[in-house]
Write a structure and sequence with these properties.
The chain is α/β, with parallel strands linked by helices and about 290 residues long. Helix content is about 25%, strand content about 20%.
């Protein structure tokens, strides 16, 4: 008999938010949750099924579905890019009103990371996703790289958007360097103005921006939380070839999906408590915050 084809991987994608807006002509006064097309297509390019993980709480909530149910059912999750992280999430006051970020989305994202980490499922972060993961495990951020980091490159250009680039240096001896054994320096897109200031305990920097030295890739390598947790500050789903060529995203994508496939083969273990910033406070805080809106 022919060998059965293994079932496709089911990968969660965290939601982006447009909060209720009474002036919006469509879905007036309604909260929208959505995904950006490129990152869904990036995951689908390797045959994975992509499922948005909606926020299960809020004033219209019904039923008993939780983020833990999604974490148990799915094989891994990707944390989306998007709005600034609220400085209060890492114990600071916003230095400018424009950098206040999205507190509700932070609480949702923290709860997603908590649920998948407790389930032992792989987590990959992109741009905001890297920043959120760092904050979730106790790190902090530059609220604005250009004004807070001496000698900083321009990491975001509103006019060129994903055509803004800079170089990175891959740290030799890291997991990322093993994915790119012949590459010590490369080029990436850069669409952010916040970045890691203090790295969370248990994480390793795998790539730095060049020449200003802002963390561009991180990975969980120690501490009590085991399992695959990694992130890039750049958007691998925006990889370009030709004149605007950037680092090939293939190795990063396949590495994450291989971790998801391996996780699927492991026997299910009960959720475990996670020491550190997220613990099991995130879901409770999210529920309280949304009910107060």
């Amino acid at each position: 008999m022919p060998k059965a084809t293994p079932p496709r991987l089911k990968i969660g994608l965290s939601a982006c938010f447009q909060h209720a807006d009474p002036s919006r002509p469509l879905f007036t006064g309604k909260t929208l949750q959505y995904v950006e097309q490129s990152i869904a297509h990036w995951l689908m390019s390797a045959g994975a099924l992509v499922v948005m993980v909606p926020c299960p709480t809020g004033e219209t909530a019904r039923g008993d579905v939780t983020l833990a149910h999604y974490a148990e059912w799915l094989d891994g999750v990707v944390m989306h890019g998007g709005a600034d992280v609220w400085p209060g999430s890492y114990g600071e006051e916003p230095l400018r009103e424009a950098w206040i970020g999205d507190r509700i989305r932070d609480l949702y994202d923290l709860a997603v990371v908590e649920a998948f980490a407790q389930a032992g499922k792989p987590i990959f972060g992109v741009c905001r996703g890297l920043q959120l993961i760092n904050v979730a495990f106790g790190g902090s951020l530059y609220q604005d790289i250009e004004t807070q980091h001496e000698g900083a490159l321009r990491h975001r250009d509103a006019d060129t958007y994903d055509l803004n680039f800079h170089d990175i240096e891959i740290v030799q001896g890291t997991h990322l360097s093993r994915l790119y054994p012949d590459l010590k320096q490369s080029r990436v897109n850069s669409i952010h103005h916040q970045g890691i200031k203090r790295l969370a305990d248990g994480f390793t920097v795998e790539a730095w921006s060049h020449p200003d030295g802002v963390p561009e890739a991180i990975r969980r390598t120690g501490g009590p939380v085991r399992g695959y947790i990694a992130a890039t500050q750049w958007h691998p789903e925006f990889h370009r070839q030709g004149r605007h060529s950037t680092i090939d995203d293939t190795a990063i994508l396949h590495d994450f999906l291989q971790a998801c496939a391996a996780s699927r083969q492991r026997p299910h273990q009960p959720a475990r408590h996670i020491p550190g910033r997220i613990r099991d406070r995130a879901t409770r805080l999210l529920r309280q915050a949304l009910l107060m809106r």
